[in-house]
From TrEMBL:
Keyword Protein biosynthesis assigned: no
Superkingdom of the source species: Bacteria
Pfam families: Glyco_hydro_26
InterPro entries: GH, GH26_dom, Glyco_hydro_26
Protein's organism: Gordonia sputi NBRC 100414
Residue ranges of every copy of the GH26 domain listed in the record: 1-361
Residues at the active site: 136 (proton donor), 289 (nucleophile)
Annotated protein name in UniProt: GH26 domain-containing protein
GO term, biological process aspect, one: substituted mannan metabolic process
Keyword Hydrolase: yes
TM region(s), chain numbering: none
Gene3D superfamilies: Glycosidases
Keywords: Glycosidase, Hydrolase
């Protein structure tokens, strides 16, 4: 999901927190709950502070997601520090998504070294960090996409530096959901005859198709990965996307397990992400972003906002989720209203954007969720 990065000033526009005593974070493993699932938010920092979101829900999210470019300058990093200050004062965890929009070649040893130092400072200030580096690398829309060898090498270099310099920071590997792979037509799609194409052709039939593994060529290795993450959205029931459709029963778990077969087609060749990376590789699994599409301009058509969103969150927060997926340790709601290029219109993904949906959402949050008061990083 593409989002904008706010300014440091905007992050503090509504919220001036009281300082709390720092507590240096020295072990990223402490951010993984033994039981329960961390509840988090992917917040539009320019529209709402973390404290305001806490007040709206009646709970302090255990996790907040921040985006930043890399390489970055001092001004860009100040936005991340501003977000981290809010996370610290809510006593939560920051998922930091770093995006190398100028390409993987820009991630030099100097850039990686500075990152390690800066993350150590965040940890020392009391902020546990989970670093989601160059997410959706199996997609064809980012400058770091569909380059298996270069991506794995770069991720491993970043992980080695982070593990050495910032032990309070964990590394997250987070591909795009494999439905639609290899995402033909994107600017950065792997080209036939290249090394990238050959490495992505996992069944060795000379073609890059949906039958190839959409995740495995990009996996950096167990020693470099501490968390695995994936984003699962309800974009609608049929292409073209944008209609206000109530999701089909069982869609959320079907996508997580690579067995979706419904009105939008079938993704039966998509690997079972949870089984492979949660159960077999024994990595804590995060749903880094999730939400259901609601297009306000089409309010007169299809289902209501509450029906669209509540049907999805009832699947995401179903009673059997913790027992069914014991390695699932984090779920973050995508709390944005933004223009989406895929439908050329504004989408309101928020669960707390209006009083009616917010009230219903809060009432639906299950007891098995962990909030910031369950986070004990030091």
């Amino acid at each position: 999901m593409l989002i904008g990065v706010g300014t440091a000033g905007a992050l503090f526009q509504h919220y001036l927190p009281e300082p709390t005593p720092p507590c240096a974070v020295t072990d990223f493993h402490r951010a993984v709950p033994n039981s329960g699932i961390l509840f988090g938010v992917n917040l539009d920092w320019q529209s709402e502070s973390l404290r305001e979101h806490h007040d709206n829900l009646g709970h302090a999210p255990a996790v907040a997601v921040q985006f930043s470019d890399i390489p970055y300058n001092n001004q860009t990093w100040s936005h991340t520090v501003a977000a981290a200050n809010q996370v610290r004062d809510e006593r939560g965890i920051m998922v930091l998504t770093l995006e190398p929009h100028a390409g993987l070649a820009t991630i030099t040893e100097g850039v990686v070294g500075r990152l390690g130092d800066d993350l150590r400072k965040l940890n020392d200030s009391g902020v546990p960090v989970i670093l989601r580096f160059a997410h959706e690398m199996n997609g064809s829309w980012y400058a770091w996409g569909q380059q298996p060898r270069a991506y794995v090498e770069t991720f491993r270099r970043v992980a080695a530096m982070v593990h050495r310099k910032a032990p309070g920071t964990a590394m997250m590997w987070a591909p795009n959901y494999g439905g639609g792979y290899p995402f033909e037509g994107g600017k950065y799609v792997a080209r036939r005859g290249t090394d990238n194409y050959r490495l992505a052709d996992t069944n060795h039939d000379g073609k890059l198709t949906a039958s190839d593994d959409s995740y495995a060529p990009y996996y950096p290795g167990d020693d470099a990965v501490d968390w695995v993450g994936i984003s699962l959205y309800h974009w609608g029931n049929r292409r073209p996307w944008g209609n206000n459709d109530v999701s089909e029963p069982g869609k959320f778990t079907a996508m997580l397990e690579g067995r979706y077969n419904g009105t939008a087609g079938h993704d039966l060749t998509v690997p079972n992400f949870y089984q492979i990376y949660g159960t077999q590789h024994q990595k804590p699994v995060a749903i880094v972003e999730t939400a259901a599409i609601y297009t306000p301009a089409r309010a007169a058509q299809g289902a209501s906002e509450l029906a669209v969103k509540s049907t999805w969150w009832r699947q995401v927060f179903a009673a059997d989720i913790p027992s069914r997926y014991p390695m699932l340790k984090m779920i973050n709601w995508f709390e944005w209203r933004k223009y989406e290029i895929e439908i050329k219109d504004v989408v309101d993904w928020r669960a707390a954007g209006s009083p009616d949906t917010r009230s219903a959402f809060v009432s639906s949050l299950p007891k098995w969720l962990d909030y910031a008061n369950s986070v004990h990083p030091c």
